[in-house]
Specification:
The chain has 11 helices and 14 strands. It has 374 residues and is α+β, with helices and mostly antiparallel strands.
Length: 374
């Protein structure tokens, strides 16, 4: 399909606009947002434009952040080998209030972080004919490239392309990964899994549980790596890099480049998660809020579109995703009492993911669907 021609058709006019057809045209081009930008478009295609109600909803939804003095906590893991009570206390406070924190001295070499970002960028900047074989919307495919997993459900498309890789619990055959990012993705996956296990130990202790409790619930057993690419946008005020959402996992570890744009909804305003050299961003996922019975907070966040770019980020989701498991997840029994009854019903991961994927990034938390009626 001619991407340049597709780009022209997206502009359309109000009398001929057929949203479904334009979504299909974009999808079938298999070129993503990067392909649109490469075609030379100077206007944001209509399928990406945020609806009027978002612009009318006020600063807490769509405006510029007011930016109080509040900052996302930074936790130094260098003391973990000794007395880690201070680290646990810091993790507890961040998980219970902000739902986000950055970690430094996490054990993953800066060089590997830089190589992972560079490899993600290199994949997305390959010629279209080199990427097209990976383009897919097949749910069970372990390695796939695409744009907007919820393209056909969302009110508007996000200005972002993604390389999606299921790295565990079953070991991924390295040959399934694109050559340009194969070796570094495998090594990053190995090291991020080690860090994830450490963070689940800290989070277990922060809940007052034994250090291996969350690991025993398979929270660290599987993980996905998503390499996101946000091209420079000609009209960033009209769209979003990623719509407001919370994550459908236990825990997320994010590696972001220097561009910025990630914001967290805290204290009723959008707070920048400014890039900190060598740091990784950690946030609580919906499933950890569910099993902690609201003790830990899975907080809404978003990514702004930007004139600058491309922005590259590499996200690790700790979840078993679509891996077949019969385990049910509900509030951890040891955390419940007469004064702290369960807030959520039990669910399988399959049902949780299916609900999340079917609704897409609609700005509403999936957790409300799993709440018990009082």
């Amino acid at each position: 399909m001619n991407v340049a021609g597709a780009g022209k058709s997206f502009a359309g006019n109000s009398t001929t606009y057929d949203r479904l057809q334009e979504l299909k045209t974009f999808d079938e081009s298999k070129a993503g947002v990067k392909g649109l930008v490469d075609s030379g478009i100077t206007k944001v295609p209509r399928i990406f434009i945020r609806p009027p109600e978002e612009f009318a909803a006020g600063k807490e939804v769509s405006g510029e952040p007011t930016q109080t003095q509040f900052r996302i906590p930074v936790i130094d893991l260098k003391d973990f080998a000794g007395d880690c009570s201070g680290v646990v206390a810091g993790v507890r406070q961040a998980a219970e209030t902000v739902g986000f924190f950055q970690v430094v001295n996490h054990g993953i070499p800066i060089k590997l972080l830089e190589e992972m970002v560079a490899a993600a960028r290199e994949f997305h900047e390959l010629p279209q004919e080199s990427k097209v074989e990976y383009y897919s919307r097949e749910p069970m495919k372990k390695v796939k490239y695409g744009s907007n997993f919820d393209l056909y459900q969302s009110k508007y498309a996000n200005w972002r392309d993604t390389l999606f890789c299921v790295m565990g619990p079953e070991p991924l055959d390295p040959q399934e990964l694109p050559l340009v990012c194969r070796d570094v993705t495998m090594e990053y996956s190995r090291q991020i899994h080690v860090l994830g296990s450490l963070l689940f130990e800290l989070l277990s202790e922060a809940l007052g549980l034994k250090h291996d409790h969350l690991e025993g619930l398979d929270c660290a057993k599987g993980h996905l790596i998503l390499s996101h690419y946000y091209p420079a946008c000609p009209e960033p005020e009209l769209t979003m890099g990623t719509t407001k959402h919370s994550d459908p996992d236990f825990l997320t570890i994010l590696l972001q480049d220097h561009i910025g744009g990630l914001q967290v909804l805290s204290h009723n305003e959008w707070i920048d998660v400014s890039p900190l050299p060598g740091a990784l961003v950690v946030n609580i996922g919906d499933l950890l809020q569910l099993i902690s019975n609201d003790k830990f907070k899975s907080v809404e966040h978003r990514v702004l579109a930007n004139h600058r770019g491309p922005r590259v980020s590499v996200t690790c989701f700790f979840t078993l995703h679509l891996y077949p498991t019969t385990r049910m997840y509900g509030p951890i029994k040891e955390l419940l009492s007469e004064d702290n009854p369960p807030v959520y019903r039990e669910t399988s991961l399959k049902d949780f993911i299916a609900y999340y994927d079917n609704k897409g990034l609609d700005g509403n938390s999936a957790l409300s669907h799993f709440m018990l009626l009082r």
